[in-house]
Design goal:
Blueprint (H helix, E strand, L loop, with lengths): L1 H8 L4 E5 L21 H14 L6 E6 L8 H14 L3 E4 L7 H13 L5 E3 L9 H7 L3 E2 L4 H20 L12 H7 L5
Parallel strand pairs: 1-2, 2-3, 3-4, 4-5
Helix pairs in contact: 2-3, 3-4
Length: 191
């Protein structure tokens, strides 16, 4: 309840909360690490408490379903989705490690047929062969590319670091770097 009110006060319009318990482990580890799901009634109470705490109707609580990550079935995910929507979730995010994307497709099409007004959020990191139009046809409303910019930046930084070590200066890396003036312009008051 405190978190929802704090987020609203700070101008945040939505929060995504996941239905796992315990220490946060990246979902892409899947069943390689313990991924324990919150009991449905307990997670529904979190959603309901958050909805009761919000000050405006505009704030959204999006429930993140981790059933598929934890090795459970699409049926389990659908059961949880129904309960979360009934508890007041404004949207759902479903996540999967499965590369074929067929589990996500089955979930989305079944869920969307019953709840056309509830936004569905997808993060196609592992099933990236599908276009946004294809995912939208399944019922997806929002697509999040969660880690691609970070993953792209590391190889670039490594390339520049190796060139500096090799040449013992940075001159040879200038063409690989954003101009300093442009960086400073990104910072408010940085001019």
């Amino acid at each position: 309840m405190f978190t929802v009110r704090t987020l609203e006060r700070n101008g945040i319009s939505a929060v995504i909360i996941e239905d796992k318990i315990g220490l946060k482990k990246n979902s892409l580890f899947g069943t390689e690490v313990t991924q324990e799901l919150c009991p449905i009634p307990d997670f529904c109470e979190k959603i309901s408490a958050g909805k009761r705490a919000q000050v405006t109707r505009d704030f959204m609580i999006i429930a993140r379903l981790e059933s598929l990550i934890a090795g459970f079935s699409v049926s389990d995910a659908l059961e949880r989705a129904h309960a979360y929507v009934t508890a007041g979730a404004d949207g759902l995010m479903i996540h999967s490690r499965e590369k074929s994307g067929q589990d996500i497709k089955a979930f989305c099409e079944t869920f969307h047929a019953a709840y056309t007004h509830i936004p569905l959020v997808l993060v196609p990191t592992t099933y990236n062969q599908f276009t946004e139009k294809e995912l939208a046809a399944w019922g997806a409303s929002v697509i999040i590319y969660a880690n691609h910019l970070l993953r792209a930046s590391y190889p670039a930084m490594k390339h520049v670091a190796c060139a500096i070590l090799e040449h013992e200066r940075s001159l040879e890396t200038e063409h690989l770097c954003m101009p300093l003036k442009e960086i400073l312009e990104l910072i408010p008051g940085g001019k």
